[in-house]
Amino acid sequence: MRAASISGAGQHSADRRIHNPKKFTMNNGTSEAPATARNPRTTTDELDTLKRELMKAEVRLAKARATVVSAEIDIKVLSTRLKAHAR
User: How many helices (H) does the chain have, and how many strands (E)?
Assistant: First the structure.
């Protein structure tokens, strides 16, 4: 069961990268530098956009963490049931 949820999460991530490939960091840590890193003078609109993107990333992270916790609970429950049937 755990493998299915991991591949499902990976597929969702891959789908997002297909639609907007420059927005995501590769696993090897490389990423395209945002405009603010190249140009120290930013506009209010750019800062608002960055803040909004940061909030969205934080929401995605919170959802991913919740998914992990849910999977861990599923594993514990299924392990307990398996042990009970093995007796």
Answer: 3, 0
| CA contacts within 13 A on the Cβ side of 25 | 8
Q: What's at 51, amino acid-wise?
A: K
Q: Residue 29 carries which DSSP code? A: S
Output the pLDDT for position 2.
Answer: 43
Residue with tokens 């750019």: 46
**Averaged over 49-53, what is the pLDDT?**
96
Tell me the residue length of the chain.
87
| Mean pLDDT score of the chain | 75
CA distances to 59, 72, 74, 81, 84 from 24, in Å:
15, 26, 29, 39, 44
